[in-house]
Amino acid sequence: MHANTLRTTTSAPIALAFGLALGLGAAPGHAEDDEPGIPAPRFTWELGVEVENDLTFEADDPAAELNDLFPSITGEFGLEFLEGTGFFGTLVLEPVLDPTDDRVFEDVGLYAEELFAQGQVDVVTVKGGKFNPAFGQAWDAPGIFGGGFAGDYELLERIGGALTVEFEAGGGEHEATLSAFMADRTFLSDSLFAERGRVRLGDGGPSNTEGPESFALALDGAFDDIGYTAGFLYQSGGRGDPSDETGFVAGLTRELQAGPGELFLQGEGAYFSDFEAGSDDVLIGTFVGAYEIDDVTISAEYAFRDVEAAGTDHFVTATVEYEIVENLSAGIGYAFAREDDEDAHTLGLILVYEIGGGFALQGF
Q1: What is the CA radius of gyration of the chain?
Q2: C-beta of residue 286 within 8 angstroms of C-beta of residue 149
């Protein structure tokens, strides 16, 4: 039932990670913020490349002690005809199968994580297609293994639509998003090169229904240096599932000056009834701190996951990252996880490079 905690792009439970990331351009859907000097119509793009080596060096389960060297490439694009209006997508090349033994650049597949059309008029944005519905934020926590158990409830690769309204209230800026969706069962649910397998209706699982019977309501915003997230989730069970899933999430973040550096704090909790359309109630909590001073960022996280029928799992991780040159940084991290009464340890290394770009389209 549980997503493996100790991984960034693969599922090795204990890891020694070495990563390389290359980013080009502005994130789809946010091109108007990232590339303000490029007038619409425009094309923006972003490419990230990672190479990691995950080494299981100590685990209660001997089968988990393995070495996994793998790449991960993420490409994003946005084709905007008007400000915020156009077509957007995210393509991912990474291992699509879990490692069962030592492997080197194996089981790598290419798939579409997002492909959607979007329209924006003033403070209202509407999108439709394949996208990641808004619900929570802690799954995007800093650090090599940041996100911990929160990755269990990140909503990915759904088919449907979303409506977002931005507004100001109480001295803060906010946005409310309502998404209606179902699991992707099109050919886009499979992958090229290495096949992860197309999703079928008979597979069951949350939101794997004939139509968009599931929905999420998210409210995100900020008051100066304090941010928040809140959300409600309903996912209809698929074939063979005993029930439907309902969930709630709430969290706070704060960014503040602390001595010569900047401190980021995050806390988020999520509760689910009949998690993943099963029969267990699950409570997940995530607590994160990150301190950035000059070219160095130190981050740490503690997370727990309490499963009604299985007890409580724990996760602790820490990472130190250093910016070598502009857009290029390296990091080292450690993580400890106790899942299903079994301990696992992770030592990780990562190298990240990012750069951006885009251009205006003439003749439109």
Answers
A1: 20
A2: yes
Tokens of 293: 């001073």
Q: Which residues pair with 82 in a beta bridge?
A: 85
Cα distance between residue 340 and residue 343, in whole Å:
9
E strand map for the chain: 42-55, 58-59, 67-82, 85-95, 103-104, 108-121, 124-131, 158-169, 172-183, 214-223, 226-235, 245-258, 261-273, 282-293, 296-307, 311-325, 328-339, 342-353, 357-360
Q: State yes or no: cis peptide before 41, omega within 30 of 0.
A: yes
Task: Name which of 277, 284, 192, 249 is nearest 5 in CA terms.
Answer: 284
Residues contacting 55, CB < 8 A, separation 6+ = 14, 15, 16, 66, 67, 68, 347
Identify which of 37, 45, 29, 89 has the alpha carbon closest to the alpha carbon of residue 357. 45
Q: Where are the alpha helices (DSSP H) in 38-157?
A: none
Cα 358 to the chain's mean position, in Å?
Answer: 24
Tens of each residue's pLDDT in the chain, 364 residues: 444 455 443 333 333 333 333 333 333 344 334 455 788 899 999 988 888 888 889 999 999 888 888 888 889 999 999 999 999 999 999 999 999 999 999 999 999 999 999 999 999 999 999 999 999 999 999 998 899 899 999 999 999 999 999 999 999 999 999 999 999 999 999 999 999 999 999 999 999 999 999 999 999 999 999 999 999 999 999 999 999 999 999 999 999 999 999 999 999 999 999 999 888 999 999 999 999 999 999 999 999 999 988 889 999 999 999 999 988 888 888 989 999 999 999 888 888 888 888 999 876 6
Sign of the CA dihedral running 252, 230, 45, 33: negative
For residues 193 and 187, what is the distance between their CA atoms, to the nearest angstrom?
14
Q: Which two tokens stand for residue 182?
A: 């179902």
Alpha-carbon gap, residue 294 to 183, rounded angstroms:
43
> In sequence order, what are the beta bridge partners of 104?
69
CA distances from 138 to 151, 152, 171 (A): 8, 11, 24
Q: What is the pTM of this model?
A: 0.87
Peptide bond into 242 cis (omega under 30): no
